Structures are given as structure tokens and as C-alpha cells.
Amino acid sequence: MSSNAFPRLIYCASRISKPVVSRMNVSYGSTFLPSLAEVTNTDPLIVDHETPVSTVLAQLNQHGATCALIRANGHLTHVFTMRDIVHLAANGATSGNVLGGHPIITISHSHPEGIGAALRLLMQHQIHHLVVINDEGHVAGVISHESICAAITPAMLMRLRTVAEVMVTDPITAEADQPLIGVARIMDEYKVSCVVIVMPGAGNRLLPLGLITERDIARAHAAPMNLATTSARQILAPQLISVAPEASLWDVHQAMDRAHVRRIIVVGSAGELVGLITQSTLLYPTDPLEIQRTVDLLQRSLTIPTPQPLAQIRPPSSDAHPRGNIHLLLVDDDELFLKVIKRLLISRGFTIAGVASSGRSAIEQARALQPDIILMDVEMPEMGGLEATSAIMDERPDARIVMLTMAEDDATLFEAVRHGAAGYLLKNVDIDRLSEYILGLMRGEAALSPVLAQRVLGALASQMRQDDTHQPDPSSMLTHHQIRILTLLAQGNTYKEIGRLLGYSERAIKYHTGEAIRQLQLKDRAEAVAYTRAHMRRRSWPWIGDA
Predict the structure, then answer these.
(1) Which of 234-248, 292-306, 384-398, 520-534 is the least confident region?
(2) Rounded to an integer, what distance in angstroms lies between the CA atom of residue 517 and that of residue 540?
(3) Which among 470, 413, 415, 422 has a CA at the least distance from the CA of 444?
(4) d(Cα 69, Cα 81) in Å, to the nearest integer?
(5) What was the pLDDT predicted at 26?
(6) Do 106 and 122 form a contact (C-beta atoms < 8 A)?
(7) pLDDT, tens digit, for every residue of 507-517?
(8) How far apart are CA 313 and CA 515, in angstroms?
(9) With contact defined as beta carbons under 8 Å apart, do 254 and 264 qualify?
């Protein structure tokens, strides 16, 4: 069947009258991400709940939209998506059926976490559309995977990741002679948005011929076509778009943009099917908090190759310690962070003696390499950065160790100082500022930002003013996050559930729990839960609200 049987469709989030082009807001430090307003389609398709499915299909195809908001009795109640159309087609429903859909999930347009909160909601509820509500409680628009991808341009992030790292390795497949009704039923059964059409190859390999998507089923259903007699082969695109596993995500992003598609097949050296990569995959190589941190690092790395006018080039440094003679050991379990920070420091003239991904490895590397300065993460597997710092200082009391971390709570800061750290810096520190701190360490100075230095001095002053016999409640030393985590543990939540609720990794939750147990001088998690419940019953547990 000719592809002309289908009306031309534009792949976009909904009825966006103007392309979404974002310069990225600089809203906190050097972190940049588009605002919720920049990823919101403010003109979504809204239909009455009594509108026939056939009419909604026509409007979706006319506007190239991926969803319609359903209104009943003056209120929006459901969202009708391509997945609902596939479900109708798979169950033999007629195009005159009354609209169904699923309940809407909303987000405030002024949510303090911005796009990070939107990404978490999309993943948490396994949905593709969020309804945005303004301050008056009215609908401000719709956020979707497509609208986010249109606003985010993480070129550097994509260049550092390969297809093999994030692709779906077991895509759902169907044979070319499978009727479309069968393909629709496969999509509905497995809850997927596309099926790879294949033919047998040599050695039990599958050779991909193309893709059938939810939109293809929707268009065939609207044409109308006989889904029982039309085979998948008949509506396949004439050209197969594919990439190799070693291609970068940036290559995929460009290929999707050129071909106006949202999914690309991954093939091996012999043309065999090895995976599938989607537009959603480009959004979630890591969890949203890691995406924000990574993009922040990569934003700073973009300045590395930028040439300066001759008038702006600084004269050679007159530092007492030439940068090339300063040997650094980098310790972090985040491979991407190590790659970026290593490149940044080399670009500033320093020598990287080695890298390590755990506290135990850091001890071995420090012993073997004898670096001038160690930049150490706090949270790592096997052994954390604080414990490794203490062990290294026992062997080398003159070692210069700087905690380079995301943790900015006082407890971790003071613990680092007690373990002998010569500095404590946050990972969003500017690379040139970090360079100055490193040079200062070689001169015998501490590497503390003015804000953190003031907190340390304030804590010391407060401790000196305290009566020696006064013993404060240990819980008063806990951070907001530790109190929140212990409260959720006492309420019966698992580490994984708490991580999902608070937006942290399970490993981070375990780390903060362990730190709280240590500060409370308890033996284990069971004692921590009992301690927390006892305080909650006596109403002596700090109130932290719902934040």
C-alpha cells in the first residue's frame, strides 16, 4: 500500500504554534535547564467527553498532536493518548465509541524543582503527558516527552554517551506478514509504543525491516483500513533508519531530527537487530537529579576549546608551584564526573596522577602515587570518602585531601574536618575557582568557600560558648534530610521507596541513614527506627513539614 494513503503528520507535543527554542535558564548557580514554561504546550487539544473517538482521531491527526484532554461538566478529568487508541484498536472497538483515557497527573507551573519534578512524575507514573496547573488552579498547558526534548539541547551530554549504554536490548518484535490487528494486540499486551518488524536471518539472527508505531496504528484505524487483512509489511517506510551501538547519543539526536522520527533501530555489524533507542531514552540516561548535575558539569566543559582574543590571554602563571608539577588524584564513583573533571583540570595545566572509584581504591592509589592533592567524593561504594580520608591521614599526616561533593549539610562538612580534610568544596564550584583553591592548598591554605568557612567558624564559636556539662539531644545535630529519611523509615518505607519519594538514589538514602545512625550513636537501622518512633510518640522529634 502506498504511503500516500496516510495524511502527512508532524511529530510534536501537541498544538504548538511556534517551535520551542530554549537558551536554557540559569536559575541556580551554573545549573541550566529549561523552565517548566519553556517545555509547556500552552495550547493543548481539549475535547468534550461525549466526543466520538473518530472525531478526536481526526483532530489529533490534523494537528499532529499526541494527546487530547477530556472535559466533563466543565472540568478536565482524563487524558486521551495514542496508547488509548492502540488499546481500542486491539480490542476491536469502533471509531464511534465514547472517549476513555486515563486520569490526568498534574504539576504546578511554579514547582520549585522545575523540570526535574516533571521528569520524575513522568517516570514514576509511566506516562507521557503531564497537565500543568497555574496559581489559580486552571490548566496552563501540557508537558510531554516531545516538548521536553524540543527544549533541552544536551549536546555535550549526548556526545559522552553511546547508544549501547542506554538502548533497549530486547525490543518487542513481529514478523512482516503479521496483520496490523496482531501488531496492535502485541502493543497493548506489552504496553509498548512501537514494534520492530523483522525477518529471519543467518544464525538465528533477526534482521529488522522497520518499525510500526502507535501513530501508524492510529492512522490506519482512522483511514479506515481493515486491520485484520492489512499486513505490517504494507505500511512500512521504504527506508530503514538505523544506528550502530557505538554511535553517540548526539548522532542519534541528529538522525531523529533529520528524519522527524522518535525511535531508531540499533543494528550490529552484520545488519542484525541488537536494540532500539527512543526519544524517551535520550531523556533518561540517568535519573533526573543526575541529569541536572551532569548537564551542569558539561555546560562548564563547553568553555574548554573556546579560543580567546589575544588581548584576553593571561600571561604565564607566576605561581610558586607550576601547575604541571602539581599531581592530583581524583576519587569518585561517577565515571562521567571523573571524565569531565579530569579534562577540565588538564585544560588548566594540572597533572592527573591517577583516578579511583572507591575509598578503598583511593587508599591504594594514594599509597602508590603519593599525589600532592586528593580530590575525594563523600558517597562511594565499598568505603566512603570520609573513612578513606581518615585512613590516608593515618598513613600520611601531611596529605592534602579536599572533599569534592554534592553534600552541603553541616554534619558532613564538620565530619570531613574532623577526619583531617584540608578542604570541602561542592561539585558545582567553577573550574577556575577550583584551580585557585588547588594552588592555595600548595601554599598551605584551606580550600573552603567563604560561606562554608563561616559555618565552620560559627560552629566552633557556638561549641566554645556551650557549658561543658550541657549535653544536647543528639537528634538536634541531624540534618533536615536525615530527619526526613528516618521519619519515612519509621513509617515503614524501604530505602528504594524513600529514594523515589525524595528523588535520591537508593545508595544515597542508605548513606544518609548510616550517617544519622552514627551521629545518634546507635547500632543499626532497627535501633534507629525504634529511636525515631519513640521520639515521634513523645512529640519530641523535630517537625519538618511536608517538604
Answers:
(1) 292-306
(2) 18
(3) 422
(4) 9
(5) 27
(6) no
(7) 878 878 888 88
(8) 46
(9) no
356 DSSP assignment: E
Strand duo 447-448 + 423-426: pairing: parallel
Q: What is the mean pLDDT of residues 11-21?
A: 27
Q: Provide mean pLDDT across the span 228-234.
A: 94
CA neighbours closer than 13 Å in the CB half-sphere of residue 40: 21
What is the C-alpha separation between 337 and 513, in angstroms, rounded?
A: 24
Contact partners, residue 334, CB within 8 Å, separation at least 6: 377
For the stretch 133-163, pLDDT in tens is: 999 989 999 998 777 766 655 554 566 578 8
Gyration radius of the chain over CA positions: 28
* Span 362-376, pLDDT tens digits: 999 999 999 999 999
Rounded CA separation 400/441 (Å): 7
Report how far residue 292's alpha carbon sits from residue 274's, in angstroms, rounded to the nearest whole number: 29
Strands, E assignment, 44-181? 46-48, 67-72, 75-81, 102-103, 106-108, 129-133, 139-144, 173-175
Which grid coordinates belong to 250?
Answer: 548526539
Enter the pTM of the model: 0.39
- The answer to whether the beta carbons of residues 161 and 283 sit under 8 Å apart is no
Helix, strand, or coil here: 334? coil
Q: Taking every pair of C-alpha atoms in the chain, what is the biggest distance, in angstroms? A: 88
Residue in the block written with cell 535558564: 25
